[in-house]
Amino acid sequence: MTLLIILLAVLALIALSSWGKVNAFLAFLLVTIPAGLALGLSSTQVLAAVQKGLGDTLGSVVLVVVLGAMLGKLVAESGAAQQIAAVLMGAFGPKNIQWTMMTTGFIIGIPLFYNVGFLLMIPLIFSVVYQYRLPAVYVGLPMLAALSVLHGFLPPHPAPTALVALFHANVGLTFAYGLLVAVPAVVLAGPLYARTLRGIVSQPLASFASEPRPADELPGRLNSFLSSLLPVLVLAIVLGLQAVLPAGGPLAPVLSFLADPGVVMLLSVVVATFSLGRSQGKTMTAVMETYSAAVRDVSMLLLIISGAGCLKEVLVASGAGLAIADGLRGTGLPPLVLGWLLAGLIRVCIGSATVAGLTAAGVMLPTMAHSGANPNLMVLAIGAGSLLFSHFNDSGFWLFKEYFNLSVRDTLRSWSVMETIVSVVGLLGVLLLDWVLPLVSPKLAGL
């Protein structure tokens, strides 16, 4: 009966979000409260679980999501992202245009949220298309594949950050494993698959090909790279020091403090405020206005994340975890595969990668203690599943279609197939890591 209630709750969430067009946060609340009552909780217990889920989830992700949005917004508006793209284009040249675009998307996608990165990179893509007379999909898909993979796999993006917190994973290891999985996924879905799409006729709308900023108004090259990638550099240095220094040494508390993603993002925002803001002639008021706009951009996203936390907490408080664990043992599917499949099904039905990942996490979380699955890999498995087959109910599908001025058929065979390749390759990479890690380092595999 418990499994049936959970299934009905998920189906109701899909129906409200997809067919009913109900705001995702409201949909979570409308589903969570009846589900909690049906699972045997009293009305007081349900409300307590909702409040705890809201507080715990927001408390664990709000710093990273908000600070990440601030950094991404400043990177975009300062011209740092354009400078990074220009440097990579000069280094690789037009003959390796696909690899250049993929690398640009990979670097830009680390600090920028997907929609911000997409809108920021569209002028660059179209300028390359017009300058070198190349097919737009052939040029643009590798970059967008990189942006999409990072959005689904790696912190500080909202869904992976929330999943790391929910599963109590290690943000540094999740990021490191995510890079190992992301690279082959991007290569296969980006440059290699895009070569089969050269025949797609696309005439990007001229109104979308905006002029880039003048070179003399851009931040310096080193400044652009260091400011944009500071979160990655700090995490890499701290993770490396933690690996080589004794766990109980005098630097251990300092390293643990610096490894916290909220601290990393705060440090990065403070540095960028001066390196990409004040040093570029912006007043402090203008920089703060940029940050305020960034917070407005992610406010509803934070509510959606907290709504998923409510569903998770109700499942935990009701003791549904044991019932789900029993059901999992009956399916015979490995937990990582089941997490991927659940996220994928919700993604296909709802369209939102973030909602799919968080909903799947809410169902899978109570089973973690019984499954023995690596929490870092579970984050990646669910993240990969949340990217499966983007189609008509996904805003990213229409964003790609309209900006590239494609038919629905060509959008399906380019964008939708690319997303599916990313998802499947991501799962295969996670399963390979799950097999290799215990052989390489049992201690590391257990983190």
UniProtKB/TrEMBL annotation:
Its main location: membrane. It is a multi-pass membrane protein. Keywords: Cell membrane, Membrane, Transmembrane, Transmembrane helix, Transport. Pfam families: GntP_permease (PF02447). The keyword Magnesium does not apply. The keyword Transmembrane helix applies. It comes from the Bacteria. The chain crosses the membrane at residues 27-50, 57-76, 96-129, 136-154, 174-194, 225-245, 257-277, 298-325, 337-365, 377-400, 420-440. It is found in: Cell membrane. Belongs to the GntP permease family. This is Gluconate transporter. It comes from Hymenobacter negativus.
